Amino acid sequence: LAKLSHLNVQRSNLSDDGCDKFA
After folding, report:
1. Which residues lie below 8 Å from residue 19, measured CB to CB, with a gap of 6+?
2. How far apart are CA 23 and CA 15, in angstroms?
3. What is the pTM of this model?
4. pLDDT for 1-23, tens place per residue?
């Protein structure tokens, strides 16, 4: 489920560094 959340954050914030928090 964590990976799904990561994808959602990445799609919601393409220009945001939010995905780095999950990486």
Report:
1. 6, 9, 10, 13
2. 15
3. 0.21
4. 567 676 666 665 555 555 555 54
